[in-house]
Amino acid sequence: MKHYFSLSTIVGIISLLAAGCATAPKSEADRSQLSDDATVASQQTKETDPSLDRFLRISSGYAVFPHVAKGAAVVGGSYGRGTVYVGNELIGYADITQATIGLQAGGEEFREIVVFESQRDLDRFKAGKLTLAANLSAVALKTGSAESAKYTDGVAVFVQPIGGLIVEAAVGGQQFTYEPKK
Questions:
Q1: Is the distance from CB of 15 to CB of 109 less than 8 angstroms?
Q2: 10 Å Cβ neighbour count for 140?
Q3: 179 contacts 78 by C-beta, under 8 angstroms
Q4: Average pLDDT value for the chain
Q5: Which string of DSSP letters, residue by residue, matches 142-157?
Q6: pLDDT, tens only, 120-159
Q7: Contact 159, 140 (CB under 8 A)
Q8: How far apart are CA 125 and CA 111, in angstroms?
Q9: What percent of the chain has pLDDT over 90?
């Protein structure tokens, strides 16, 4: 007997696994470390592509996920925690979960920056109503990539590999949660 799991079931399983991970770090030291990691990740991505700085400055806001870990063996998942900004002001914390199913194996770590075109798009993110579809194209960060980047449904996504290798022909989507800075 074959068992098939829907994408929503897989997302639910990953969400339950990540449930022990609160959106915002609990301690002030951990919040400070996440903020420092996001600052370093932002600086490194801007060094890779100096045009990203302008893209971020003219956006309505953006989220920086300095370390997203992904693993897969047929069923895969990823999780990362990040910070959310309007201009250069930290306004809150976010986490990202993804579940995938398909032909895939391996593990990797990457940085991800999600940029919001309008206040409405940022508000949608903050309300937990933003899910990135599997067919949304993320821009692999390299020199000049932000100059030609386009928003899709009010969102632009930039990804920079950190390490690892994953081979996949899989489908899945990313979900986010947001918690305002206290």
A1: no
A2: 11
A3: no
A4: 81
A5: -TTTGGG---BTTEEE
A6: 999 999 998 887 765 455 777 777 678 878 888 899 988 8
A7: yes
A8: 18
A9: 41
Dump the DSSP string for 99-145. Answer: EEEEEEEEEEEEEEEEEESSHHHHHHHHTT--EE-TTPPPEEP-TTT
Confidence of residue 8 (pLDDT cuts 50, 70, 90): very low
Residue written as token pair 């309300």: 127
Tokens of 139: 């821009």
Distance CA 43, CA 29 (A): 21
Q: Which residue has the higher pLDDT, 165 or 180?
A: 180
Q: Would you list the DSSP string of 44-89?
A: HHHHH-THHHHHHHTSSEEEEEEEEEEEEEEEEEEEEEEEEEETTE
CB contact at 8 A, 91 and 61: yes
- Do 174 and 131 contact (CB within 8 A), yes or no? yes
Decide the pairing of beta strands 61-86 and 139-140: unpaired
**55-69, 94-108, 129-143: the lowest-pLDDT one:** 129-143
User: What Rg, from alpha-carbon coordinates, does the chain have?
Assistant: 16
User: Residue 126 corresponds to which amino acid?
Assistant: K
Q: In 37-48, which positions are buried (b, 16+ CB within 10 angstroms) versus exposed (e)?
A: bbeebbeebbeb
For the chain, helix (H) and strand (E) counts, in that order, are 4, 5
pLDDT-derived band at 170, boundaries 50, 70, 90: low
Structural domain boundaries in the chain: 7-180
